[in-house]
Amino acid sequence: MATPTASDNSTSEPEIEKDKPTEDGKETLPRDASPPFNKPSANVIIRTADSVDFRVQQAILAEASTVFADMFSLPATGPGQKRQQREDDDQEYRDGIPVISVTESSKTMDILLRYCYPLVRPPLPTPSDFCNALVAARKYMVEHMETELKGLYPGYASQSPLSYYALASAQSGWVKEMKIAAKAALRVPFLFGYVAPEMRHMNASAYVWLQLYHGNCAAAAASAILSRGPSSHPLLPLQTLDNLDYVFFSCNHDDRFEDRVVNLVHVKRLNKIVEVESWFMEYLNALASLVLQAPLASIMGLPEIYSRKGALTMCTDCSRKVHDDVGRFTELLMEAVRKAVDGVPLQLHD
Ligand SMILES: [Zn+2]
Fold first, then answer.
1. Cβ atoms of 184 and 294 closer than 8 Å
2. Which residues fall in a compositionally biased region of kind Basic and acidic residues (predicted)?
3. β-strand 44-47 against 234-236: which pairing, if any?
């Protein structure tokens, strides 16, 4: 029997977050895992880095994982075939069952084994739990687990993008996962001085690449809303704006609010300098400020707030249309923002 150990697998990445040892600096006696991994009918023990023994069935693990299958390429012990402690091949036994030592924590091994066994999927409450599970799925080649976790990754990453980005950057070859998290990070501000706990695993260059990408996307997004043109007036760069059939460009009717204020704006697509309601310019500036913080931020209630403000200054007829017109225009703008952000190269390494 080849020594069935995974503890000397130097090619795998270190686990991201280990469980704390029970007694600092002292060798602890192995303790048994929770059910269902503590059954006496087991024919192999997986011993984790934090000294927890998982009693499992070789056949089940071998079906789920080719790595486990290779480890178990020896005749299994069965009932009535118990072996003695430490035989010539230096294989460790407990209760006559071979022990395999692994580098994973008991938390990660519990998750991995629950995917191998026909059990309910375990919860993955923290970014570290999720990424450790994906690391283990890849290391032990549990294909269905890897496929499932890869499918779940974008949704999980969108909840804590910076944490997932940091953890992905600590693994070699996780470029796709880094990119997914970097794109998800565009929905939230990149706050100066903010430190997610998982960022201690991230090196400085990974941090800088994300910061640059976020900043470039923010600049592109803001410029898609308002920018500077050849004239002294702000430039509306929207390439899909084929006409000015929106109330905020055209309300000049008799019953409008008498103190109506307008600004001038250069409409790039039509190459015209036109009047626009000042509240609408405020709206555009508010949107530009928002995307400058988080390029793909949710604009939440902003269209509604400014539509109401606009309705107070315009004629009765235009006031009725302002909500729909702001909505139509905002759709064009947000499409332009997405396009501008998509055009920013996502380069996360030299
Ligand atoms: Zn009007």
1. no
2. 15-30
3. unpaired
Contact 183, 208 (CB under 8 A): no
Using the mean position of ligand 1's atoms as its centre, give its distance from the Cα of residue 312 in Å. Answer: 11
User: Residue 40's Cα: distance from chain center in Å?
Assistant: 40
pLDDT tens digit sequence for 12-53: 444 555 444 444 555 668 999 999 999 999 999 999 999 999
Report the separation in Å between the CA atom of 311 and the middle of ligand 1, taken as the mean of its atom positions. Answer: 10
Distance between Cα 273 and ligand 1 center (Å): 19
Please give the span between the terminal C-alpha atoms of the chain, in angstroms, as a whole number. Answer: 45
Convert the pLDDT of each residue in 191-233 to its tens digit.
888 888 999 888 889 999 999 999 999 999 999 999 988 888 9
- For residue 252, the model assigns a pLDDT of 73
pLDDT digits (tens, 9 = 90+) for 117-135: 999 999 999 999 999 999 9
Side-chain-side CA neighbours of residue 144 (13 Å): 12
- Ligand 1 centre from 250 Cα, in Å? 7
Alpha-carbon distance of 282 to 149, in angstroms, equals: 44
pLDDT for residue 196: 86
Q: By the 8 A CB rule, do 159 and 44 touch?
A: no
pLDDT per position as a tens digit, 53-107: 999 999 999 999 999 998 887 554 544 444 444 445 678 888 889 999 999 999 9
Q: Determine contact, residues 322/251, Cβ cutoff 8 Å.
A: no
Taking the CA atoms of 238, 240, 246 and 249 in sequence, report the sign of the dihedral they define.
positive
Domains of the chain: 31-123 (3.30.710.10), 224-342 (no CATH)
Give the separation between CA 178 and CA 161, rounded to whole angstroms: 9
How remote is the CA of residue 257 from the centroid of ligand 1, in Å? 10
Q: How far apart are CA 119 and CA 127, in angstroms?
A: 22
Please tell me the pTM assigned to this model.
0.81
